Amino acid sequence: MSCISETMKELVKNSSGIRAMFEEGKRLARLRGAENVYDFSLGNPSAPPHEDVKAAVTRILNEESPTLVHGYMNNSGFEDTREKIAQSVNAEFGQDYGADNIVMTCGAAGALNVTLKAIINPGDEVIVFSPFFVEYAYYVSNFNGVTVESKTDESTFLPDPEDLESKITSRTKAVILNSPNNPTGAVYDEKILKRIAGVLDAKQKEFGRPIFALSDEPYRKIAYDGVKPPFIPSIYRNCFVAYSYSKALSLPGERIGYIIAPSDMDSFDEITCALNVANRVLGYVNAPSLFQRVAALCRDTAIDISVYEKNLSFLYSALTDIGYECVKPKGAFYLFPKAPGGDDLKFCALAKEFMLLLVPGTAFHTPGYFRLAYCVSYETCVNSIDAFRKAFDRAVS
Ligand code: PLP
Is 108 close to ligand 1, i.e. is its CB under 6 Å away? Predict the structure, then answer.
């Protein structure tokens, strides 16, 4: 007899293919030796955390009051941490934020869930751009919202503003933006963001109520060739930014990030109160206290992303030389090539025969592609090429 809820039964049944692949990677590594398995399945950062993080932890534990460092606090987080982060955002993006604009969260995942909890009524629609990070659909359904997909241009993976406009209805409450993007690595430029803002603004006027942009930005600091992802609040007023240190400081297990809520958004006071309470009632209570202190000290620290850039440049040219078709990413640490032979599920199964662990595009609601997370060692990238060649040849033969 099953004791779990009907909703959970469904979730367990469809439980993340990416995780399953990760487990499979570990199994194959035990069986065949880690050096013979090319595991590109999970976005676990390979760049080491910055030395500043270790120094900050030591300093905090040695110098700060334990009752402060390990105690309960305001559900939005330590006031001084939020103030320091606001100052850092102000310096980078020319804003005028204070502690009231920042809510500390358990990573970007926590930030998204807290924000959705604060704004979604059952049946409200949230638009996402395909391909998308599949967890969005689960987060939206946590609050009985409905996920609506809008397409991207397949030559750039940028959102299609006309398609977006056609998907907005009187139930649309929010649109999730994700740049740099998982799984495509696309970075939304100012021009496309202004067009999206134009569509949202016109629809807000038409319906006489806000439509929020929810900008999911765990990869903000990972962009290449001088590309700088635009700051959404400078372009669209009714927005939230979900930021995280998981990738920016290589600290995914520490669960630390924050929400920015700009003061000029509609119902700012009511919304920030709701974010605070949402953090509590969702059971997060507050973001981990030690790493809030670390985030305050390391607010301007950045990891060295050259390890990712080197992998990208190597893999992109090696794979396209073999014949893989791929839009060149501008950020994050993913490639999203077309699956040779056209069937992503078949191709990923075939790739596994050559010890290549990849995630089918179907997992991102975009069949016909696969995702390769190149946050692995350079050696793994180099050693994997023979397997990529063999998988390609077999798939197209
Ligand atoms: N959003 C995207 C697009 C991600 O890829 C991830 C993690 O991989 C998250 C959110 C969750 O990030 P965090 O670890 O900060 O919760």
Answer: yes
Mutate to test the pocket of ligand 1, among 128, 133, 256 (most ligand atoms within 8 A of CB): 133
Residue 62 CA to ligand 1 center (angstroms) comes to 31
Rounded to the nearest angstrom, the distance between the alpha carbon of 206 and the centre of ligand 1 is 33
Q: Residue-wise over 297-309: b if at least 16 C-beta within 10 A, else e?
A: bbbebebebebbe
- 338 within 8 A of 325, measured Cβ to Cβ: yes
pLDDT at residue 35 tops 90: no
Architecture of domain 51-297: 3-Layer(aba) Sandwich (3.40)
What does the alpha-carbon distance between residue 196 and residue 172 come to, in Å, rounded to a whole number? 14
* Burial environment of residue 33 by CB neighbours within 10 A (0 to 12, 13 to 18, 19 or more): exposed
Distance from C-alpha of 171 to C-alpha of 55, rounded to nearest angstrom: 48
Percent of the chain having pLDDT more than 70? 98
Chain segment 236-286, per-residue pLDDT in tens: 999 999 999 999 999 999 999 999 999 999 999 999 999 999 999 999 999
What is the C-alpha separation between 151 and 129, in angstroms, rounded? 6
Sorted by where each begins, the domain ranges of the chain are 6-50+304-396, 51-297
Q: Rounded to an integer, what is the distance from CA 274 to the centroid of its chain?
A: 23
Domain 6-50+304-396 - what CATH class?
alpha beta
CA of 181 to the centre of ligand 1 (A): 10
Centre of ligand 1 from the C-alpha of residue 218, in Å? 6
pTM reported for the whole predicted model: 0.96
Whole-number Cα distances in Å, 186 to 49, 219, 259, 318, 334: 24, 11, 22, 20, 9
Q: Judging by beta carbons within 10 Å of its beta carbon (0-12, 13-18, 19+), is residue 17 exposed, middle or buried?
A: middle
